[in-house]
Amino acid sequence: MKYFCSIAVVLILFSCQHVERPEKPENLISQETMVSLLTEVYLGNAARSIDNKHIREQGIKLDSFLFAKYNVDSLQFAKSNAYYTADLDTYNDIISKVQQRLQVLKKNENERKLEENAERKATQDSLVEKQYLEAEIDTAQARSKSLIESVTSEQEEN
Description:
By secondary structure, the chain is mainly α. It has six helices and no strands. It has one domain (23-147). The relative contact order is 0.08.
């Protein structure tokens, strides 16, 4: 038993390790820029998974475009991302803000689609009403023409 306990203590001591956090990069991307960048990265990944063929055919490099847009490079992004992920509270805040932005974008897109559908329905309804009114006008014109013909034929007979 004494032998087992000493082996267990030695294993526990050697299994403990010191985890080093990444150092703060000199060109750390600000949290707000990181939120914006990650939001667009997630949107780009979603676009790739939905219409990957079109993106490949066009030769679009979404990540390169986003890095250029935010004036960062891939190494700077990787180091900043590693730095933020080492602090879970900070990274959770960043990811929460990304999720909020994505939800707002989704809500705005859904509202835009509803407005578009309402406009389309209103246009269709007005077309149906226009067709109905045109049919009524044609019917009224045909009736008036037949009345005029019947009146003129009666006058000719008299």
